[in-house]
Prior knowledge:
mainly beta; Immunoglobulin-like; 22-stranded antiparallel β-barrel; 5-stranded mixed sheet; 12 helices
Amino acid sequence: MKKNVLLSFLMIFAVLSSAWAQTQAVSGRVTSAADGSALPGVTVLEQGTTNGVTTGANGEYQLSVRPNATLVFRFIGMTTQQVPVDGRSTVNVQLATDQKLLEEVVVVGYGTQERRELTGATAQVTSEDVANLPIVGVDQAIQGRAAGVQISQNSGTPGGGITVRVRGATSISASNQPLYVVDGVPLTTGDFSQLGYGGQSVNAVSDINPNDIASIDILKDASAAAIYGSRAANGVVIITTKRGSANKTQVNLNAYAGTQSFWKEPDLLNAQEYTNIMMEAFVNDGFLSPLPEGEQYTPADFLDFYYGEDFEPADTDWMDRITRDASIKNYELSVSGGDEKTRYYVSGNYFDQEGVVIGSRYQRYSTRLNLDHQANDKFSFGASVQLSRSDNNRIISDNTITGPFANALAASPLFPVFTNAEGTEYSYPNFYYTNPVAEGTENDDETVNLRALGNITAKYMITPGLDFQVRGGYDALNVEERRYSPASFPGSFYEPQGGQAVNATTTVTKRLLEATLSYNKLYNDAHNVSSVIGASNENNLIKSASVTGEGFAGEQFRYVSSAAIVNAGSNSEVESSLVSFFGRVNYSYMDKYLLGVNFRADGSSRFGENNRFGYFPSVSAGWRVLEESFMSDINLLSELKLRASYGVTGNQAFGDFRFLGLYSGGSNYLDRPGLAQTQLANPDLKWEETKQFNVGTDIGFLNGRINLAFDYYIKNTDDLLFARPLPSQSGFSSVQFNVGGTKNTGVEFALNTVNITNPGNGFNWTTDFNISHNKNEVTELYEGQDIFYGFGGNSLLLREGEPIGTFYGFISDGIFSTQDEVPAERAVDRDGDGNLDTQAGDVNFRDLNGDNIITDEDLTIIGNAQPDVVGGFTNTFRYGGFDLSVFMQFSYGNEIANPAREYQMHLGAYDDNMVADVLDRWRQPGDVTDVPRATYLDENQNNRGNQSRFVYDGSYMRVKNVVLGYSLPKTFVERYSLRNVRLYAQAQNLFTFTDYPGFDPEVNYAGTSNTTLGVDFYTIPQSRTFTVGINLGL
């Protein structure tokens, strides 16, 4: 036995000795192939093992490996090399710069450019940024990921609109949305809904499946965007969809499902709290006598006193009754592949998002085919086709006092949902508001979008470097809307009419034909010329029709054809065209000195005959300083580029026929049909014009491990379109005119870093960060006159020297704690009802003109909606098969006006329910609080909407997306003939850090309104979303 043990030890020792004898020491030096300099920090790894080291300060390394081993050399910004040892003891390696990294392609107008030669200001969002997010439209994917681009989701309604501002708002009356270009075709955008749903708008960009996107490039300055001329003043968003490649067929399946709920619930009063405040208001104003101490009025007492009703009061949580945990799910399948001749990409998608508020839901069905074919050495063609259908069950909401959400906030908790035990008869919870549950369940509102988007391109190579291309594009959007409002519940506006039905159809068709000639040539290995010239013709046709009927025999009859009375109808047809000539020349010398020139001439049918054509040039220059010989010894830098640009762009997005004299019917005379002029002509009308100057720099450190970009811009817009007032004797109130201007100045900073990369243990950590500041200013108005507008009166202001979105009102200086604090001039009984105009417990409005009374002379600027800075940052971690991405988005310095607080904190002036903040109200002399007393008469107008008490700090930091994924090991998935399997969980709007007391700091009144910014009036908040999903590749 002992001999066997000894023999075993000797055999093990012999094997170990043999194995030890089979390893050898290898040393060497790693240098740069470009200049021979040493490369410290290079990872040297024995392939197939975790055995590795990093090079020292002189690029040297030493490692023990097997004689037949292969060494892997990796370094950020360099091409990875695999070198067999072959028994050698010294292995020296030169690593070349990763040209793929340096020559990253950026999509620009009518072509592409290598990033290193780019002289304009752009930003890019990749398919990895978009993948797996529970979003409807691609514009949501840009939010917080691009410096200088401010994006806000107008509300939490499914399929709702998005506000996008690239370097601030330039216009007051025209659109401020950017131009979207999909695979070379300008996308039809805008809200074509004919039916009113409060401030809710339809997002046209949501028809595109986000996971069909390969990249999104945002052109921000004039040098990048000027080639799109009269439509580029607000920036250009170029969307490039995925295409097939010449390899084995790949099948990708992505599916996720989850749930949504409000991230913040409103805190409303219950029945007794509501009764206490309402009755206290009547006691304070002398309508009721106070009860003995320890006693309180009951909800039944209030119903009898206020409504004259004697039913049993309820304690209804209306918000709980109209909200739900809503589902969200997405399924998509794509197939791509091809050979050297033909390549294809095919996808199908189904997206389904319920709204948290009952009655709302958004569904999308889409399919896409992208095809490319190389017919011969000279001729190639391609085609892209997308078909989509979206079904949007809409509810009246956002910026309105009707609809289930607003009514649930306002409805008295004393009323029940139903008045009978069977739950078939709805109660009437106020004499102004309808039943919120009935609003969400009985109304039938559906909008169906049908879209066909596509293009065909043919390209012919005349000679090497000289190509001729023709593209035909088509975008057809059909919007069908149907609304049925029954007479089945009390308080409905349509109850006495027997119900109402509306059918509306809008068809928008765009046809594009363009031809380009491009030339690319490198002369003497020094002079690189890239150019394109072209012409395009674009035609747009909008047809719309609607019909309204009232009086239905029963609720099973819901179409206008069944109505007793067809009492309204309309139809229209509008056609516009744009003829353009454009060109661009880019020149570089020795990859050091860069020059770019763009030009576009646009002829538009939207403008008067004296200004039918507009001309939009730009010029830019760049200097890649690091390529100079005097920089050759600076190893710290991997890129240093200075750039500057100047150019002119335009804005024509303000409708058709503005320059014409218009007539309309209905002006009958002596019982005969007649026409009357309704708009004066202005043949000099032209586009709004934006001149932009930009300087910037791109800097890279440590072989691309750290990259930053900095830009400063000045953006002046002139010739704004306004309704210029006319003397009353002219018979017209105004005429369309080019007058007015705005200015935006700002800075942008973007940084991306590779913080840790360790091939040995597979841990990687990268960070992307951007921040931007934009200062907006109105520089000119007609004759310098202020313009007042806004909800419920003059609550917003346009004034020279102030930004768009300036809030105007009274300054609230706290609450009068005692009567002694009230100025004598205000403590009077002006209407003789025995109540003083201002009493202890009332709001102390600041007296600006010193007359000790509060009048319109005391109105002033009380805030603005423009943020000081916006931005976002993403941290991505990878370890083994795990990946974790955390994206945060922020806005700082903006203010939000919430005129809905006039009703939510009315303290007895209305019969709406109230938020719990009113529990801190003033109740007796000496109380110190910021909430005034309860009063029904409210003679001091404590709750007027336009006051600083209802203007809040809207700054916020939001954990927008958190994604945790796990990819199954290759050895496992290949066993089942799979390419990859990844499981993931995702959270959206996980946390929001803000001092804003409203429901959501990310708001924008009236959809994409230019002027009514940052106003929150019963806006549905965004949802917190949790999903789980799978990515599977074959």
